[in-house]
Write a structure and sequence with these properties.
heterodimer, A: 393 residues, alpha/beta, eight-stranded mixed beta sheet, four-stranded antiparallel beta sheet, 11 helices, 20 strands, B: 401 residues, 13 helices, 15 strands, globular
Chain lengths: 393, 401
């Protein structure tokens, strides 16, 4: 393996003859400008010439977009590697059992083009990609009906959903009087974005099944899963190091070494996410490092914001904390019942957040009918605003 | 791959974007052009010194604004050899074509001849209102004038054609068609969106009735379109939009419209855009445009020669002598999507190319291809940028062929 790593032009350029075990942390910036030449080994050349590869990109929501080349049908293999460790999915056969995905169009776009709106065109490798609309807030009643009908028709074993997309879907379907209990699937996984407590609680009200929270990335695949508040690893072909971000709060950054993609092995790669790491195990996912709010020498993570409001608002389904110059914040939220919370609940929300930031910040709370996704289709739970972006909606 | 040419490009310094550290290598000039500093300065000056509406106020900033606005009309007219009352400002070229199609009051019994080369903007507005006939092209990508002639009949009211296709870049033989149209008493519309930044145009010599283009493809701001309406032909136009600024008098018996061109400019126009466009026209008039043209042609020939040598793609069409610097390509290997190729060129090599149908699906259907890569140059591009593209494509060779 060492010789193979050394044959990769990018590593050769970055580290010369350094032993892979002592490579410094690999930053995304070092990867974004190195495609494809940085990875062009003779084995990749052969694979390209023999049409054994597929191309994709990361969504760009974690940082710069990353180009990826990998063996064809890589996700099938990755799911096979990961699912054997996940209760409820142990018997899932990726080459036989059906999966339906409700996620961003961009994410679906790497597998099937958005233009392919026909049901049959959106089934690829036993996976039905349900969404064809860039912003789920814009789903019409016709779209919701179509998604429900397609789920009934396809009858997936696994329904794999972005939690915000699923919450919006449920909210709309519920308003239309659609009985979601009847949707036929055996297992529900939440994937693609940070799973907030409010979204999860809302989903649980309507989907009476065990929920698996999958954590991974496009470039390194599945890393963790959570069932019943217990986090476990999907360990194959990857190793994770935890480096302290704020050690006294047990907040650590995830550093991944992954050989899952033989053409682009990542060695000590900074994924860009934070976790709480205690007693040699992950106890909470805390979201993206770049989203965390830095005040003085402290940071407040997405996970901590989410935890602080956990017990407050049963009726929230989604929110966004807008931060202006780390001094003013607006907590925007949507509810299941399409109306604002009563003043008492709003005031508790503001108090909880103020407590989290130790009163250093002015926080206002604002109901919104809907919160817009970012360009990638994913949603920012914490959004840092500048003077220019502050007034853009 | 190729050695960097040390040829100074004297125009680059005028474009602030090109003076940034590591500017993107911009090869999407057929979509829009970069803006010289004088255009930005004109906009800033308007915003910071004399913001006011046009044609309305008697205070000095309003008068200054009106003067700057109307002076741009004169400059625009001079740029294409027209008179200033033949220039109507709109919001873009698409808007201009829609306005023309509606102002001509066509109906489904009327026939409009257009061509397979057209941008959707010069097809859909006509298709919506009238019956369209599509002229074909020959093997070299030139308009088939004989075929076009065969489409003319007594119901033909308009022939509307692009001067230069945004895919092929070939300058079309429009004078011949316009003469033909005149013999049959048919109105002619020229879509000069691509031509205006590259081809010297004199509407009187060309002889067309109408000609449309947009400012942003010739260094001006976005949001400004132009209709040249020949004084004689403009009588066949009826205003489409009604409101402030286009009416002389409203009486119990009816309304008296303003004269051309104001009767077609209802509402507050894009004043700052038009003033910025005036600065772009000033800039262009001060340049040695022949030198710019020759330089760009040489650059384009260098690009073509290098692409042939690299041999990672096919050209959609052979380049004719009378062409503007637009090159369209299809990689030898089809497994990597065109959009993905552009993403890699952007992310890894900081190069802006365009992929897709370029709003010209009829032409792609005709050529039986599903999109292409487009490289379009302007006079501020240089040899070093093209060498960088060659290096990038060479790096990507295994993905492309």
């Amino acid at each position: 393996m060492n010789d193979y790593l050394k044959s990769i032009p990018l590593y050769q350029k970055l580290y010369g003859d350094t032993e892979p075990s002592t490579f410094p942390i690999l930053e995304r910036k070092q990867l974004t400008q190195s495609f494809p030449h940085g990875w062009m080994t003779s084995s990749l050349q052969d694979a390209i010439h023999n049409d054994l590869v597929e191309y994709t990109t990361t969504s760009g929501s974690y940082g710069d977009r990353l180009q990826i080349v990998r063996p064809k049908n890589w996700w099938l293999d990755e799911h096979a590697r990961a699912f054997k460790y996940i209760p409820g999915l142990v018997n899932f056969n990726v080459k036989r059992d059906k999966r339906a995905v409700l996620s961003t169009v961009l994410c679906s776009n790497t597998n099937c083009f958005r233009e392919a709106t026909q049901y049959s065109d959106r089934i690829i490798n036993h996976t039905l990609f349900l969404n064809t609309t860039p912003d789920p807030n814009q789903w019409s009643e016709t779209e919701i009906k179509r998604i429900v009908e397609e789920l009934h028709c396809y009858q997936p074993f696994l329904f794999d959903a972005d939690p915000v997309y699923l919450a919006i879907f449920i909210r709309k379907a519920n308003a239309m009087g659609i009985d979601l209990q009847q949707i036929p699937f055996r297992c529900l996984s939440l994937d693609y974005e940070f799973v907030t407590n409010c979204a999860r609680r809302y989903i649980e009200q309507f989907m009476h099944t065990q929920i698996i929270n999958l954590y991974g990335t496009t470039e390194v695949g599945c890393l963790f899963f959570e069932v019943g508040q217990q986090f476990s690893r999907c360990p194959e072909l990857s190793q994770i190091d935890f480096i302290p971000a704020v050690a006294e709060k047990n907040i650590y950054e995830i550093i991944v070494t992954s050989f899952k993609n033989c053409y682009m092995p990542f060695i000590r790669y900074r994924v860009g996410d934070l976790v709480r790491w205690q007693n040699n195990q992950v106890t909470a996912l805390l979201g993206r490092a770049k989203d965390a709010i830095r005040i003085n020498n402290d940071i407040v993570t997405v996970g901590e914001v989410d935890h602080s409001i956990k017990e407050v608002a049963d009726d929230l389904i989604h929110y966004q904390l807008q931060v202006f110059n780390n001094q003013q914040m607006t907590f925007c939220y949507t509810t299941a019942f399409f109306a604002k919370l009563d003043i008492e609940k709003e005031s508790i929300l503001a108090q909880q957040l103020t407590k989290l930031f130790e009163k250093q910040i002015t926080i206002s709370v604002q109901y919104q009918d809907q919160i817009a996704p970012e360009a990638s289709g994913k949603f920012a739970l914490i959004k840092h605003l500048t003077e220019t972006t502050r007034w853009q909606r | 791959m190729a050695t960097l040419r040390c040829i100074e490009n004297p125009w680059r310094i005028d474009f602030p974007q090109l003076c940034q550290p590591e500017p993107i290598i911009y090869f999407d000039n057929a979509a829009t052009t970069l803006k010289p500093l004088c255009v930005t300065e004109a906009l800033i000056e308007f915003y910071t010194s004399y913001t006011a509406s046009v044609h309305r106020g008697a205070y000095w900033t309003a008068e200054k604004t009106t003067t700057a606005y109307e002076t741009t009309r004169q400059k625009t007219a001079a740029f294409i050899g027209a008179d200033s009352d033949e220039i109507i400002f709109t919001y873009n070229c698409t808007y201009a074509l829609n306005l023309l199609a509606q102002a001509l009051q066509l109906n489904k019994d009327d026939e409009v001849i257009t061509s397979i080369l057209e941008h959707h903007s010069n097809l859909l507005p006509w298709q919506r209102l009238a019956t369209t006939r599509i002229a074909q092209i020959d093997a070299q990508g030139n308009l088939d004038v004989n075929h076009l002639q065969s489409l003319i009949n007594p119901r033909t009211r308009v022939i509307t054609l692009t001067y230069v296709s945004n895919i092929l870049g070939i300058i079309q033989p429009l004078q011949e068609v316009i003469q033909l149209a005149k013999q049959h008493g048919i109105l002619t519309v020229v879509d000069a969106a691509q031509a205006i930044g590259h081809v010297p145009i004199n509407v009187k010599e060309l002889g067309c009735d109408f000609l449309v283009f947009s400012a942003h493809k010739m260094l001006g701001p976005s949001g400004v379109g132009v209709i040249y309406a020949n004084r004689h032909a403009s009588g066949s136009l009826k205003p489409v939009f009604y409101g402030g600024g286009m009416v002389e008098q409203i009486a119990a018996t009816g309304i008296v419209l303003q004269k051309m061109p104001h009767c077609f400019e209802a509402g507050t126009p894009n004043i700052e855009g038009i003033i910025g466009f005036g600065a772009a026209l000033d800039y262009l008039q001060c340049q040695d445009r022949l030198a710019q043209h020759e330089y760009t042609q040489q650059l384009c020939n260098y690009l073509i020669a290098g692409l042939k040598k690299l041999d990672v793609s096919n050209f959609c069409f052979a380049r004719e002598d009378l062409s503007i610097p637009i090159i369209t390509l299809i990689p030898h290997k089809k497994t990597l999507g065109l959009n993905h190729i552009c993403q890699i060129l952007s992310d890894s090599y900081n190069i802006a190319l365009r992929d897709g149908y370029h709003c010209s699906q009829p032409l792609f259907n005709y050529l039986n291809i599903t999109g292409c890569l487009r490289i379009s140059l302007f006079f501020y591009n240089n040899y070093a940028e093209i060498d960088h593209l060659f290096d990038a494509l060479d790096h990507m060779r295994h993905l492309l062929c």
